[in-house]
Amino acid sequence: MTHYAGIEIGGTKLVAARGRGWSIAERVAIATTTPEETLGKAVRVLTEWHDHEPLSAIGVASFGPVRIDPAAHDYGKILATPKPGWEGTDLLAELSRFGIPVALDTDVNAAALAEARLGAGQGCDSLIYITIGTGIGGGVVVGGRPAHGLLHPELGHMMLRRVEGDDFAGVCPFHGDCLEGLVSGPALHARFAGDAAAADPQDPRWDTIASDLAQLLANLLLALSPQRIVIGGGVGLGQRSLVRRAADRVPQIIAGYLPEVDRAAMDRLIVPPALGADAGPLGAILLATDSMASAGKSLR
């Protein structure tokens, strides 16, 4: 059995997973503190695994923005981020010591890949994974592969038409009222001046938030034509009624332009993740297996 390692680097924790094939055999969670401490602990875990049973490849799925183009001079480095101390961090420098293939992508692209192949998107050629939590991230898979380009998808920083009468300034340090600035966990905390989960479900502010999220969903259907949109994350999973309220508004926004996008279709198009918290680590392991395949090595 070939062994792989996947590292999912999130804003609050790093998860290192050891996989046999495409299943997780072992995992270790590490708090995301400084880059040196966090990545140092992860490398020590991988070293123990590698010494016990040699790893064939490593996949790294990181929060963004991160340079994922291997041809770029700053490949593997975290770009401008509000995460203190992480901008400019080289995520791959210490992994070269293992002498095995290392693949890198965003955490949400990796989660999208896992859901597409193993979870809620099986049988679909195109899938978008959205995580709504401390921030809003989006991964896109088309034809079984994560979408790359100028950088990588940054769906949370898309701009949208503001709901009439909503004067909330937003909390994004870069754009103010982009989608992340309006709908993320910190945005909800600011809107409700406290725990949004404790707010009255009938509070009219939920209608505004649902309308903002619905605009994102409609824009994604129009721009990328996904066969499935998977919504996870602390807010995405903890506020499923918000997701459903947003989904209910999408056909009205589309206004008949996509005839197949009606209310009945929403239950099929917009779904929760099937893999739960395993999507990111499994996605990182899939990055590792794909790096072996691209290197022309057989998978066992």
From TrEMBL:
Originating organism: Croceicoccus marinus
Catalytic reaction annotation: D-fructose + ATP = D-fructose 6-phosphate + ADP + H(+)
Entry EC number(s): 2.7.1.4
**What name does the UniProt record give this protein?**
fructokinase
Say yes or no: keyword Kinase present: yes
Instruction: Look up keyword Metal-binding and say if it applies.
Output: yes
Q: Which PROSITE patterns match?
A: ROK (PS01125)
Q: Tell me the cofactors it needs.
A: Mg(2+)
> What GO molecular function annotation could you give as one example from this UniProt entry?
fructokinase activity
Q: Which CDD domains match?
A: ASKHA_NBD_ROK_BsFRK-like
Q: What UniProt keywords apply to this chain's record, in alphabetical order?
A: Kinase, Magnesium, Metal-binding, Transferase, Zinc
Q: Tell me the Pfam families matching this sequence.
A: ROK
